């Protein structure tokens, strides 16, 4: 009798630890207050550690964030153009500053692999695991 109670108690405790794990908050991608740069904040500790480690090794070679200007309805060319700029790690955020300032009225597509997970428990149980990582995307209107 005590063995079954002991196993039941152990199961309940383990279930609580797995159910009460960290929040699954995605990083937040927004413009800065003056709209001169793009800020990624709310980065989880594991991703932040990997970014810092990679950034310290070679800050010029990593591409943390990809920014594309999307064509408007009136544009004759329907191509997305890559925006060049520099990503800087500042505290627990990543700040992307473009080489040329953002144009008012344009829509920008921001893609980032920061904090993206290949497979988690819910995807495993639902059977929705994909064969490749999908970046977090955010459309920002200046």
Descriptive labels:
142 residues; alpha+beta; Immunoglobulin-like; four-stranded antiparallel β-sheet; 3 helices; 28% strand
Can you give a write-up of this model?
The protein contains three helices and eight strands; from the N terminus they run αββαβββββαβ. The protein has one domain (22-141): Sandwich (Immunoglobulin-like). By secondary structure, it is an alpha+beta fold. Strand 5 (85-90) and strand 6 (93-98) form a beta hairpin. The mean pLDDT is 81. The protein is elongated, with a radius of gyration of 21 Å. The relative contact order is 0.18.
Using DSSP, what is the number of strands? 8
Give the strand order, joined by hyphens, for the main sheet. 1-2-6-5
Structural class: alpha+beta
The coarse overall form would be: elongated
Average pLDDT level:
81
In short:
With 142 residues, this protein is an alpha+beta fold. Helix content is 26%, strand content 28%. It contains three helices and eight strands.
Topology:
Elements: H1 2-19, E1 28-31, E2 38-41, H2 45-57, E3 65-70, E4 81-82, E5 85-90, E6 93-98, E7 107-112, H3 121-126, E8 136-141
Antiparallel strand pairs: 1-2, 2-6, 3-4, 3-7, 5-6, 7-8
């Amino acid at each position: 009798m005590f063995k079954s109670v002991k196993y039941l108690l152990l199961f309940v405790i383990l279930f609580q630890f797995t159910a009460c794990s960290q929040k699954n908050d995605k990083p937040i991608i927004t413009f800065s207050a003056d709209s001169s740069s793009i800020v990624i904040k709310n980065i989880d500790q594991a991703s932040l550690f990997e970014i810092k480690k990679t950034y310290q090794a070679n800050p010029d070679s990593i591409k943390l964030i990809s920014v594309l200007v999307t064509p408007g309805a009136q544009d004759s060319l329907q191509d997305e153009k890559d925006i060049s700029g520099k990503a800087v790690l500042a505290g627990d955020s990543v700040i992307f500053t473009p080489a040329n300032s953002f144009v008012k009225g344009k829509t920008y597509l921001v893609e980032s692999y920061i904090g993206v997970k290949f497979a988690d428990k819910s995807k495993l149980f639902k059977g929705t695991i994909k064969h490749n990582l999908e970046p977090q995307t955010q459309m920002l209107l200046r």
